[in-house]
Amino acid sequence: MKIAIPTETQHGESRVAASPDTVKAYVKKGAEVLVQAGAGKGASIPDDAFAAAGAKIANGGWGEADVVLTVRRPSAEVLAALKPGAILMGGLEPYGDKEGLEAIAKSGVTAFAMELMPRITRAQAMDILSSGTVPAAKVFIMGVGVAGLQAIATARRLGAIVSATDVRKATEEQVKSLGAKFVYADIADAATSGGYAKELSAEDKAKQAALVAEHVKTQDVIITTALIPGRPAPVLITEAMVDSMKPGSVIVDLAVERGGNCPLSKPDQIVHHKGVTLVGTVNLAGRLAGNASPLFAKNLANFLDLMIQKDGSLKIDDADECIKGTMIARGGALVHPMFQGAK
Ligand code: NAD
After folding, report:
1. How far apart are CA 343 and CA 329, in angstroms?
2. Which of 27, 50, 115, 204 could cysteine-pair with 187, CB 3.0–4.6 Å?
């Protein structure tokens, strides 16, 4: 028996009617399986994965097939090549385009429209309209500050298996309290007294990279948020690590505006690299301007309140640490200790 899986040709259809698992099962039953080259591309299943499962990667030969599996109606070209009596099975859209449906009938194939599967218990495993559940995605959050903690909580709410890492040891408890796994190399705590991170020593960077390299191979989504105040963002995901990830995985690099936690991400671009998608969206708060503006406005109003006196006049209290900590210029000069002498 020969089973063929052509590439879907309908606009916007990126699925494929076989997986490496189903190919393996057909081969085990003695079938010869032909998968068209590139048929799995849109579903992030490379030809190699089908070949490893026992399929022959083909670019035709539909005329020899006893069974043809499709997600939607086959192209006119495939249909014309099929032998009479061949079984065609897929989402054949029986309710629209009567002419197209008649063309399928005239080709002489025995066609099964999977949408018409009875909705009975015995048919559940064959029901393409409610196919089943998918395994939970594995999500890895790198950098557990404000953004990282929100990412952990959101990914957990969405049902993901979540892990997270940071160089500040204090984050371990926070990560665990949100129900995620803490991934931590045997390194010195890199927290500063201000609660931020400092740059790691070369030795600790290497230890962290080795641990991360192993972990990322199994992840579906990585969200990186790692920043070091006043320094470029640390590189946490190297190109080699991206290469080791599964096709279809996604990296969201929230540090992209400060150079990125991954050298392949680009500001305001979606980059595709060997099947991995890197999202480099900048100014995320600006995408939620309706919610973000009132929050931002309230921060400013609360700060300005420190300066507005009862009689409505303004007074700058130099001793207030919030005022001291943020005032960078006054009287024609840079006054903040961090920026004095800056050009
Ligand atoms: P951030 O944006 O500067 O950095 C994000 C995270 O990346 C930090 O947790 C940092 O430790 C981590 N990181 C840096 N280098 C890393 C590396 N090599 N590998 C992995 N992770 C790395 O941080 P943030 O979101 O501003 O938060 C920093 C701290 O400040 C947190 O403890 C946060 O709770 C605290 N905070 C307090 C207030 C407040 O009290 N008003 C407000 C905001 C943040």
Report:
1. 13
2. 204
CA dihedral of 266, 257, 42, 11, whole degrees rounded to 10:
-90
Q: Is 196 near ligand 1, meaning CB less than 6 Å away?
A: yes
CB of 225 within 6 A of ligand 1: the answer is yes
26: its two tokens: 């057909």
DSSP element (H, E) containing 214: helix 202-216
Is residue 15 left, alpha or beta, with left meaning phi > 0 and alpha meaning psi from -120 to 50? beta
Q: pLDDT tens digits for 216-239?
A: 999 999 999 999 888 899 999 999
Q: Encoding tokens for residue 184?
A: 């931590």
Q: What's the pTM?
A: 0.86
Ligand 1 close to Cβ of residue 195 (< 6 A):
yes
Distance 275 CA to ligand 1 centre (A): 31
Full DSSP string of 73-103: PPPHHHHHHSPTT-EEEE---TTS-HHHHHH
- Amino acid letter, residue 169: K
pLDDT digits over 104-124, tens only?
A: 999 999 999 999 999 999 999
Pocket perturbation via mutation, ligand 1, pick of 150, 165, 166, 224 by most ligand atoms within 8 A of CB: 166
What CA–CA distance (Å, rounded) separates 48 from 26?
A: 17
